[in-house]
Amino acid sequence: VWERTGALDVGAVALILGASVMMQVITNLQNDVGYTVRGGERSRTRVGLPRATALGLLTARQVRSAIALAIALAMLLGLPLVAARGWPVLAMGLASIAAALAYMGGPRPIAYTPFGELVVFLFFGLTAVAGADFALTGDGVPVTTWLAAIAMGALAVAALVVNNHRDMEHDRGVGRRTFPVVFGADASQMLYTLSLLVPFALVVGLAWGIGSAWLLLPLLWLPVALRLLRDFLTCPPGIAYNLVLFRTFKLELAFAGLLAAGAVLARAMA
Question: Can you list the pairs that 88-91 forms with residues at least 24 positions away whose Cβ atoms lie under 8 Å?
Answer without folding.
Answer: 88/134, 89/131, 89/134, 89/135
